[in-house]
Design goal:
Blueprint lengths: L4 H8 L5 E8 L11 E8 L2 H13 L4 E4 L5 E3 L4 E7 L6 E7 L2 E7 L4 H11 L1 E2 L11 H6 L3 E2 L2 E2 L4 E7 L5 E5 L17 E11 L2 H18 L19 H7 L6 E2 L2 E3 L7 E3 L5 H19 L8 E3 L3
Parallel strand pairs: 2-5, 3-5, 4-17
Antiparallel strand pairs: 1-2, 6-7, 7-13, 8-13, 9-10, 11-12, 11-13, 14-15, 15-16
Helix pairs in contact: 3-5
The chain binds flavin-adenine dinucleotide (FAD).
Length: 308
């Protein structure tokens, strides 16, 4: 359902505290810097405003997209119908216990993942060093079970608090969230609010050393400062998607402003005024070539959202 700016303002009046950006260009809110406008981008300032927004959206049957750092999404050029909701006001991190060999932390979904990695490094808490250098938020990392260097966010998750589309809030144990390789069973209409995590206490210098080692490795092997949405395709079982794309001769292939990175072939870079349509065409081209050369069908890792 489409509603006008005036109707949004009337509906939100009195029930909502926070920013509302109308016609928000999603290229300004995604790491790939691609994507048309969202009807409205809402940044609730407190949990009550978030809940009221969710109830409003349900009552009026309006579509919505939860968005973290926008580092794993490709927003189509037609933008997003309805509301995009972000969590920049929800970034609290708190140690809830620190006894014996383990420490427990409470972390809100909007906390940048690297803020958490750095906090753990400073405290000597071990378990998420492998996530060093992954951009985006803690909530986004939970939804896609982000990971690298043999470490995944699910390794440290104890429980996650989720608000469903009807504003109901429930706590789920990690084993009930269907975590797998770059996926979880969290529904697109669920909002991750926060989670409790558990980390092993270690020597501070040892944690720092691992963080530095992973960071140096990432900077050498990935185009981390270029405009991308991370890995385009999931690694097929026991194989590297980047290696398959490279061996199929696709490095440097370009459609419009989007090209296959010369540093890591599983990253597509927006090198100019790239459009989502270019990115999607390049995905099709590359996966067809890889399938033809080695018979493997690549599965997307990035999430494609929005209207054509
Ligand atoms: C340079 C670069 C390197 C990367 N390296 C890695 C890597 O090594 N490993 C890896 O796994 N990923 C990597 N990524 C991808 C990406 O950073 C991760 O997937 C990250 O965890 C996504 O977090 P985000 O907050 O940006 O999520 P977004 O991109 O904003 O959202 C991703 C999905 O999660 C949903 N979502 C986000 N927040 C919430 C919430 N609070 N509640 C409900 N749903 C939510 C969105 O609706 C969307 O479906 C990389 C990306 C880049 C650009």
């Amino acid at each position: 359902m489409l509603i006008s700016r005036r109707e949004w303002e009337d509906a939100l009046g009195g029930i909502y505290r926070g920013d509302a950006e109308f016609g928000a260009p999603m290229k300004n809110h995604t790491s790939l810097a691609v994507g048309g406008p969202a009807d409205v981008l809402l940044s609730p300032a407190d949990p009550v405003s978030l809940k009221n927004v969710m109830l409003l959206l349900q009552k009026k049957n309006i579509l919505f997209l939860p968005l973290g750092g926008g580092t794993n999404v490709l927003v189509r050029d037609g933008g997003i119908e309805g509301a995009v909701i972000n969590f920049k006001a929800f970034r609290m991190m708190q140690v809830i216990h620190d006894e014996g060999n383990y420490a427990g932390l409470f972390v809100e979904a909007g906390a940048p993942l690297q803020m958490l990695v750095n906090f753990c490094k400073e405290k000597g808490y071990a378990g998420i060093e492998g996530l060093t250098g992954i951009p985006g938020t803690f909530g986004g990392a939970i939804c896609g079970n982000a990971g690298s260097y043999g470490c995944e966010i699910r390794d440290v998750i104890q429980s996650v608090v989720i608000m469903s589309g009807d504003g109901k809030i429930d706590r789920f144990d990690a084993e009930d969230l269907g975590f797998g390789y770059r996926r979880s069973a969290i529904k697109p209409t669920d909002i991750v609010l926060n989670a409790n995590i558990i980390l092993r206490k270690d020597d501070k210098d040892a944690v720092e050393e691992r963080v530095q080692k992973y960071l140096a490795e990432k900077m050498k092997t990935q185009p981390i400062s270029a405009r991308s949405a991370g890995c385009v395709f999931k690694n097929p079982e026991g194989m590297s998607a980047g290696k398959l794309i490279d061996e199929a001769g696709c490095k440097g292939m370009k459609i419009g402003g989007i090209e296959v990175s010369g540093v890591h072939a599983n990253f597509f870079i927006n090198s100019g005024n790239g459009r989502a349509a270019d990115y999607i065409s390049l995905m099709h081209e590359v996966s067809l070539i890889v399938e033809k050369k080695c018979g493997i069908v690549l599965e997307p890792e990035i999430r494609v959202v929005g209207r054509e």
